[in-house]
Write a sequence for this structure.
């Protein structure tokens, strides 16, 4: 009997201790992980080019086998990232887009078009350039520079000249506009060669900008990871898997090395996770990668936000290997990832379509 009394007293003590502050609610479940969403209308489209201008996002697309509900070559625009309008359909393949003031220029295979909101469309230059084999096209000093794989063409006031003599490398990739010593310039890098250099182009010559880059870091150029934020030029380097910024013409590290996929050793040769694109949302840096989707640099740590992006091997989702993200834009409170085959990024034709990620 004394034992029963002692046991009962102990249970009562534990019960009262547990109820001292009232019942304890279970912890709330963690919020669901945010996912990228696919835009259905672009599901079968190769995205050739994305560019922003004055609060509008423009996208050139190509569908190899169009259906009754789709068109092969279309230029779209959106002002809110939700509603997409057709700006023009084309008979032949289209590619890069460039702006000269408020006039949009787009390259179609065999000809170039310009569009102004007030004056509409006009075809202004016929040529033999294939839009799907052209790296990029830019306006500088009222001249239009078109960069094919082996040469560049310059269009100026109805005259055309070839600029083979300007090229140090076989060809160049995408161009990024910036200001240097008070003048507008473009930065670019070689197209798929084994020496990664950054060039500054002033309209007449290419100048290398490599101070601060080690010998080991300037090998194997593949992806045009370049971006300008707050008047500072950023670039990703493939061999070191690092992001750097240009300060007084010297490259300086701004983040830790891009983490590799944990499954890199399952392949021969082993996979290397390289930065493929860069963008900023407000003051936060996001980096597209070759194998791990999109990473966010936060609190000195790389954090993945890749859930829902296109898997490179969809039959093996456990490896979480994502298709290379070479087209990444921040627009209207969203990130946009576009897949396809832009000619400025070799090896980029892994998947199709556009996905978006909405910030809170």
């Amino acid at each position: 009997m004394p034992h029963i009394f002692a046991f009962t007293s102990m249970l009562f003590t534990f019960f009262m201790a547990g109820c001292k502050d009232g019942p304890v609610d279970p912890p709330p479940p963690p919020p669901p992980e945010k996912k990228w969403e696919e835009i259905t209308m672009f599901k079968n489209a190769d995205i050739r080019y994305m560019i922003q201008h004055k609060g509008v996002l423009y996208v050139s697309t190509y569908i190899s086998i169009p259906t009754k509900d789709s068109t092969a070559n279309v230029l779209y625009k959106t002002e809110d990232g939700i509603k997409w309008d057709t700006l023009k359909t084309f008979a032949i393949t289209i590619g890069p887009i460039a702006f000269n003031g408020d006039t949009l220029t787009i390259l179609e295979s065999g000809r170039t078009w310009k569009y102004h909101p007030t004056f509409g469309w006009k075809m202004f230059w016929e040529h033999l350039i294939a839009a799907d084999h052209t790296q990029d096209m830019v306006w500088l000093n009222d001249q239009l520079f078109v960069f094919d794989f082996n040469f560049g063409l310059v269009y100026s006031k109805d005259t055309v000249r070839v600029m083979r003599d300007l090229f140090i490398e076989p060809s160049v990739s995408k161009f990024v506009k910036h200001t240097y010593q008070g003048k507008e310039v473009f930065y670019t890098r070689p197209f798929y060669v084994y020496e990664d250099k950054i060039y500054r182009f002033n309209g007449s010559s290419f100048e290398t900008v490599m101070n601060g880059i080690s010998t080991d870091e300037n090998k194997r150029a593949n992806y045009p990871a370049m971006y300008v934020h707050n008047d500072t030029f950023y670039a990703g380097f493939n061999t070191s898997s690092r992001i750097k910024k240009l300060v007084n013409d010297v490259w300086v590290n701004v983040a830790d090395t891009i983490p590799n996929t944990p499954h890199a050793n399952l392949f021969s040769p082993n996979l290397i996770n390289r930065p493929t694109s860069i963008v900023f949302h407000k003051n936060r840096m996001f980096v597209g990668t070759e194998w791990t989707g999109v990473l966010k640099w936060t609190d000195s740590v790389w954090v993945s936000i890749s859930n829902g992006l296109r898997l490179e091997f969809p039959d093996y989702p456990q490896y979480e290997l994502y298709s290379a993200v070479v087209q990444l834009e921040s627009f209207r409170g969203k990130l946009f990832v576009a897949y396809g085959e832009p000619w400025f990024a070799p090896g980029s034709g892994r998947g199709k379509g556009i996905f978006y990620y909405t910030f809170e």
